[in-house]
Design a protein that fits this description.
Strand order of the largest sheet: 19-20-18-17-21-22-28-27
Helix content: 10-25%
Distance between the termini: 31 Å
Shape: elongated
Number of strands: 29
Length: 591
């Protein structure tokens, strides 16, 4: 990608490269490049690529990653070796010209045979410990497409499903779902984050990839809410954005086409449309009142992705908030800030975009705050870095039948400066080194990062950085609201369940005062048996506290209802922000 020089693969970081660096002129006579050295090969391309992969894998003595890219079934159309396919074909030029699709399918079958040979070469132990990902690179060319599925104009080189939807199969180690078809939205871009997660590597650079590893075992968790494709050529220029059910195509001239791609939508619209995933019979009117909302949603998503916003972002550097609106749509805007990492002497640019998509507010953030940070007596153990995070907030939060406990797997809130709240430390007494390693939520005696003696090295804003560089709050984000007892505090963000999060002050029937938590320290001493810390209950551990209904203003989740609206409040003491969710957390907060 990006070049065809003999050394290009190695120049961009590939340790070992063997294959072609451009299109094939002939499957039986082509230039083979091995780490920048070019030689001529007269061996059938799919067979040679398989042999090269076999040999390389056999030489590996440590865990390995192999990207095996076949040129088949790309043109030129040809007759593969007889042993690799089951079709009766002459291979003459005239027959190839007259029956391109037959030769196209023969090349696919030959490639499949060679892939089978590659996988069969792995011994049982290696095969069981290997994850296999198969994906096509684009849709089928017009001259060989199956016209019963897609029309020729909806083929490779178009923005229709026949041009951009590809086969995608995952199997092997860690994949427990067998012979299941997954309908979640996944793009080739997502391979980066997925493979990194499989390998146990944390990405520390901003990227547009989203891991779908969870789909290997759970069909209800994973995939994108929207997928985006852009294409530019002499014939077609435009973009396409789709949700689970709808797809909007917009061309360079501004014309739009809206399609229904799923039978899951109920009502008159879907009842009148053909079944299936192709656009052929599912073109919808973009000016229909019932469908205009879908056009707006998908066009908004696209505008954010390709950066069409024209207004200048609002600079919120060191700004304290003032609005008390409980509705997240009232904060829709683009925001920026310029702040300093004090101990590192570095300058960062905050970037936050809040928009409405359907019944949710979407926060796209690089997780850099609107205030200086890392200003403690010593630098954070982990360096802060820009992220590429997206959180979704329901516009109409409701209380659930029962509360949801905090979890190590779910972030707690997103604030209006683009920084998340993640209260729980992965540190427990007697587990790991005390600061990290305690990943079982049921493990007792979890440390409270806000207890100074625990040494979690938070800055003056009660925040620090995670190992992946994400800046996040463990306590009160003091820079976001005035410490002023003469006025009730503003909304400073939203919890994962959609309810607003306020500062520390509220109007108690005309009297403004600080809100009080209903948690208190337990009396006496902690147990001191095996695995127990002993000593007095002093706040070092979350288990040092107990909830007493009615003790303060707030409920067990650190929230209350005022003026018919429920919300959480910052408190000077434990639990500081919230201690559970009264509603249902949005899945976008899953880590």
């Amino acid at each position: 990608i990006g070049g065809t020089s003999d050394t290009h693969p190695n120049d961009v970081g590939v340790d070992y490269y063997a294959g072609n660096t451009g299109n094939l002129p002939d499957y039986y006579d082509w230039s083979l490049t091995i780490n920048g050295v070019v030689e001529n090969s007269t061996e059938y391309h799919s067979t040679k690529i398989t042999d090269l992969a076999l040999n390389w894998v056999a030489e590996q003595t440590t865990p390995w990653f192999a990207w095996v890219a076949y040129s088949a079934p790309h043109s030129p159309f040809h007759l593969p070796p007889e042993s690799l396919h089951s079709r009766s074909l002459s291979g003459t030029s005239s027959d190839i010209t007259d029956n391109k699709r037959d030769y196209y399918l023969a090349a696919i079958e030959a490639m499949d045979t060679e892939i089978g040979r590659l996988l069969s070469s792995l011994d049982e132990e290696t095969r069981n410990n290997t994850i296999i990902i198969y994906i096509g690179d684009n849709g089928t060319p017009a001259n060989v497409i199956d016209a019963s599925t897609y029309s020729q104009t909806h083929s490779k080189g178009s923005l229709y499903q026949g041009g951009i939807a590809t086969p995608f199969i995952v199997s092997g180690q860690g994949v427990t779902r067998l012979n299941e078809r997954e309908s979640a939205l996944v793009t080739a871009t997502d391979l980066y984050a997925t493979i990194a997660e499989v390998a146990g590597v944390s990405a520390t650079k901003v990227h547009d990839s989203q891991s779908f590893k969870a789909l290997f075992t759970d069909g209800t968790n994973g995939g994108r809410e929207y997928s985006y494709t852009a294409y530019k050529s002499a014939d077609v220029t435009g973009w396409a954005t789709r949700s689970k059910d709808y797809k909007l195509i917009e061309f360079e001239d501004g014309s739009q086409e809206l399609y229904l791609l799923s039978g899951s939508v109920t009502g008159d619209i879907s009842d009148a449309l053909a079944e299936g995933f192709a656009e052929t019979n599912n073109l919808l009117p973009t000016n229909d009142a019932d469908l205009l909302a879908q056009v707006t949603i998908l066009a908004t998503v696209s505008a954010v992705i390709y950066g069409e916003e024209t207004q200048s972002p609002i600079d919120i550097t060191n700004v304290t908030l003032s609005s008390q609106s409980k509705n997240c749509v009232d904060y829709i805007e683009q925001f920026t800030s310029t702040v300093n990492d004090i101990n590192k002497g570095m300058v960062f640019q905050g970037d936050l975009v809040i928009l409405q998509i359907g019944d949710k507010c979407v926060f796209n953030t690089n997780a850099i705050p609107n205030h200086d940070f890392n200003d403690g007596g010593s630098a954070f153990p982990n360096d802060v870095s820009e992220q590429n995070d997206q959180f979704e907030i329901t516009i109409s939060p409701t209380k659930a039948s029962q509360v949801t406990p905090l979890s190590l797997q779910v972030d707690n809130a997103i604030l209006l400066n683009g920084v998340k709240v993640d209260l729980l430390a992965a540190g427990c007494y007697g587990v790991g080194n005390g600061k990290i390693g305690c990943n079982d939520i049921n493990e007792p005696w979890r440390y409270d990062p806000m207890h100074a003696a625990n040494g979690f090295a938070v800055d003056s804003h009660n925040a620090h950085a995670q190992p992946d560089g994400t800046y996040h709050y463990h306590g009160s984000p003091i820079a976001l609201f005035e410490n002023d007892a003469s006025q009730d505090s503003p909304v400073i963000g939203f919890a994962a369940d959609g309810f607003p999060l306020y500062g520390i002050y509220f109007d108690d029937e005309g009297q403004v005062r600080s809100v009080t938590s209903s948690y208190r320290l337990k009396s006496g001493d902690r147990p001191s048996g095996t695995g127990e810390p002993g000593g007095s209950y002093d706040g070092a551990f979350r288990d040092d506290y107990e909830y007493v209904e009615g003790l303060g203003d707030l409920d067990e989740c650190n929230g209350m209802t005022i003026d018919s609206g429920y919300g959480y409040y910052i408190t000077a003491s434990y639990p500081y922000v919230l201690s559970c969710f009264s509603g249902t957390p949005d899945s976008s907060f899953n880590k």
